[in-house]
């Protein structure tokens, strides 16, 4: 276990074949989303967005807690309204960066993910949770309703499930989070890293162009009325059909061979 110090990064990066793992690396502070931690994550995602050779991202954490949300000590030391507004705006930009990132992001969750940490999981495209993991939006217990985590949470799970989490602050075990739709996979603790790496490698093995196009289309259409969504999705498929990888993939299927992607 490593503890972030002024000379060690808050976020560490590990490059693999076609995908990257970003690790929250401040377990002494329970990987809290301080302003510095959010800046480090934002910079890492902005850098990844510019690299088409990276086709998937895993977001993981050091230590027994995935992410405890905002750094309450930091927040409690702020009295100026504008500084609080700036902190929450920074958090919102980070969450939106994950959604707008060209590459899919998979949360690899071990331990607790609470408040903005739960928001971080909900903002990722996929989430693989260890069976012992738990999720909570406990702001109500300290007089601070989890309003910004609510945005991501309510876009992942049914309203009454979201409201129960928000109104009670009770922790939700991984199996329940899976049933609610907050996480995509639950695996035994010992299998967490392997399962997440396999998932990321599988996505990275697909056409990067197709995955980028599909992720963007998913988030755009889901907010549209049904007729508009179909019209937009039809346009996307038309564009997709003109790409090299679509022609290559269809040709490979017909010819019963493996496709050779150019990611374009």
Automatic annotation (TrEMBL):
- What's in the keyword line of the UniProt record? Fatty acid metabolism, Lipid metabolism, Transit peptide
Query: Which SUPFAM superfamilies does the annotation name?
Result: ClpP/crotonase
Membrane spanning residue stretches: none
The protein's job, in short, is: May play a role in fatty acid biosynthesis and insulin sensitivity.
Family membership noted in the UniProt record? Belongs to the enoyl-CoA hydratase/isomerase family.
Q: What is this protein called?
A: Enoyl-CoA hydratase domain-containing protein 3, mitochondrial
Q: Which organism is it from?
A: Thalassospira povalilytica
Question: Which classification does the entry list for the species?
Answer: Bacteria, Pseudomonadati, Pseudomonadota, Alphaproteobacteria, Rhodospirillales
């Amino acid at each position: 276990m490593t503890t972030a110090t002024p000379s060690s990064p808050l976020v560490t990066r590990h490059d693999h074949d076609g995908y990257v793992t970003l690790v929250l690396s401040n377990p002494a502070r329970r990987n809290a989303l301080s302003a510095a931690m959010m800046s480090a994550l934002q910079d890492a995602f902005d850098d990844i967005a510019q690299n088409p050779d990276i086709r998937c991202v895993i977001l993981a954490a050091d230590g027994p807690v995935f992410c405890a949300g905002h750094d309450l000590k930091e927040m409690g030391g702020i009295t100026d309204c504008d500084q609080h507004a700036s902190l929450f705006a920074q958090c919102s930009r980070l969450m939106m960066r994950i959604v707008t990132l060209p590459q899919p992001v998979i949360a690899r969750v071990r331990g607790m993910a609470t408040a903005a940490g739960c928001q971080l999981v909900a903002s990722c495209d996929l989430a693989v949770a260890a069976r012992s993991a738990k999720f909570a939006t406990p702001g109500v217990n300290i007089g601070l309703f989890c309003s910004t985590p609510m945005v991501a949470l309510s876009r992942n799970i049914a309203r009454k499930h979201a409201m129960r989490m928000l109104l009670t602050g009770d922790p939700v075990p991984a199996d329940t989070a899976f049933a609610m739709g907050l996480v995509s996979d639950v695996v035994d603790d010992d299998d967490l890293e392997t399962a997440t790496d396999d998932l990321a490698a599988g996505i990275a093995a697909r056409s990067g162009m197709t995955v980028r196009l599909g992720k963007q289309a998913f988030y755009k259409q889901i907010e549209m009325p049904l007729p508009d969504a179909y019209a937009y999705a039809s346009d996307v498929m038309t564009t997709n059909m003109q790409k090299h990888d679509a022609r290559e993939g269809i040709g490979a299927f017909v010819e019963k061979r493996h496709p050779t992607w150019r990611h374009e």
